[in-house]
Amino acid sequence: MKANVYLNKRDQIGKIDPRLWGSFTEQLGRSIYEGIYQPDHPLADEDGFRTDVIEAVKSLNVPLVRYPGGNFVSGYNWEDGIGPRDQRPTRLDLAWRSIESNQFGLHEFMKWCQKVGAEPDMAVNLGSRGIDAARNLVEYANFPKGTFWSDLRRQNGAEEPFNIKVWSLGNEMDGDWQIGHKTAEEYGRLAHETAKAMKLVDPSIELIASGSSLRTMTTFGEWEETLLDHVYDDVEYLSLHQYYGNEDNDLPKFLSSSVDFDGFINDVVAICDAVKARKHSSKTINLSMDEWNVWYHSHAADDAQKPWQHAPHLLEDHYNFEDALVVGGLAITLMKHSDRVKIGCLAQLVNVIAPIMTNAEGTPSIWYQSIFYPYQQVAKYGQGISLNSQVLVDSYSSGSNEVPYLDTVSVYNPEQNEIVIFAENKSQDNMQLAVNLNGFELGTIKEATQFAGYDIKQTNEDQVMQLETLNDVKVVTDKVQAELQPLSWNMIRVKVNN
Ligand code: AHR
Q: Which residues have a catalytic role annotated?
């Protein structure tokens, strides 16, 4: 099969915000306990953080981490997680039917973020709580000193304010599974008043309003419109969440997820802009795709009722090769929307629907899932300006979607003097790829890799998967030529001289 891609240096989508490659760690299952934090583990540092996990997260280049939830935040008292550890209360976490020891809280999270080099995206509880808890948390975290909450922070060991910039106004408030689930009208009013109070404490913060939990929610569309009517002037971002699964064991359909994802983003952009027009506003609302991933392997195990437990094994999907292809396709879609999607969070980071898995004891202490590899490459090399492309390739039909066999985006990184081509071959055939890069003076190939050749159901507990060199990639004047293996994820970095 042949694929011809046409790009022009002047035809740019937009700069990729580095925060697009963020992730998420919720007080859920073994994400925190036995994941990030395990004081009795031989690899724990002086703060109880697992150094193997810190190194793995650093190798992923994660710029931002959302915390503490997720569904968890809608029943959470942030005050439970501060102060001397031996005085923190143990509580029932109703969202995940677990026991929460609160041994890990705000200060631990902030210290951990510093160690991995990520900025926080802090969610406030708009389920069981509201304005007061949220504005007190902003005061505790960001106010320098001399007030009750800021001085309590200093007493608890943080003299300097945390200066948390990005805040999420609740989580999935449209879902009836959420503690404190609300109608769009109820949530819109509460989000507006909470945003007002939070910004009165610290006007420099950026806020994310909770959009739909999934594109298939019956309230989708109406939820966004009603919500934005209330909060348009208060927030910078509207969130979207989307997970995909292959429950029908239908690979072509599963691989069409990136097309659905693209449609979802287009729909939400259209709604934001319709409200903008109706309000005669000059402000543009950007998007935060703050939960995205494949999630379905663990559903059956998680549905089985278990006794109340601390750090139970929950949402521990073991990802296979086809999942990695889907994650790669979704990442390409995000880059194609870099003009509007500014924040993204692969959900999640450690043990819970995650690229990184840990063992509580023994060796290996840690292992990487199949999805680790495309995520690592986009987080590292999906930086710069994404370019519009015209893609000429065959396509197939899946449901109402027409799915091109090639998913691709190219990113121009002027700081590194390079173009990075991400290309996923969704067909069962070899693909002769030609990328025409108009307006660029191309130099040599800096690096070319492929993730290919595995059985689609292959998982990576034994750490057999790896990126390999993609051979025979050629530069012919302003064209890059390569042969892509069937069902493969590829990345090509080309030097540019202008
Ligand atoms: O990421 C797992 C869960 O998925 C989150 O807690 C929730 O926000 C979503 O439904």
A: 172, 291
